[in-house]
Amino acid sequence: MMTFLGTVHLIACIALIILAMMQDSKGGGMFSSQTSSNSVLGATGGASLAVTMTKVLSVIILITCVSIAMIYTNSNKSVVDGGVMGGSPAPTTTPAAAASADNTQSK
């Protein structure tokens, strides 16, 4: 499930970057030319398509982000579990027991 969500998220992010580069800005977009057309797909059709696709991709990114966060939150894993400090536990002997054992051996 995580692989699927991660793949969808990555594809949506790359598509949104490409879509943002293709859109017109005040200085012209990636595919701007010397023609009088304001967008790649025509004067009016391209702008509405670009805006709609941007909204759809942003919603997909939002949903995948929230889903990934919920899955990681609900798992019982911790960042500390696999770290350097996740080794064997320290011995749990009490100082009084160790001191009495030393006194009995010395006599």
Characterization of the model:
The protein has 107 residues and is mostly helical. It has a domain at 50-75. The chain contains three helices and no strands. The protein has helices spanning 2-22, 45-74, 95-106. α1 (2-22) runs antiparallel to α2 (45-74). The chain starts with a helix and ends with a helix. The mean pLDDT is 74.
Name some characteristics of this structure.
107 residues, mainly alpha, rod-shaped
Uncertain parts: none
Largest sheet: none
List the total number of helices: 3
**Rg value:** 30 Å
Distance, first to last CA: 66 Å
Overall outline: rod-shaped
Q: Taking all residues together, what is the mean pLDDT? A: 74
Helix-strand sequence: HHH
- The number of E-state strands comes to 0
Assembly classification = single chain
Fraction of residues in helix:
55-70%
Coarse structural class: mainly alpha
Share of residues in strands = under 5%
Give a brief outline of the structure.
The chain is an all-alpha fold. The protein has helices spanning 2-22, 45-74, 95-106.
Secondary-structure topology with pairs:
Elements (H helix, E strand, L loop, with lengths): L1 H21 L22 H30 L20 H12 L1
Helix pairs in contact: 1-2
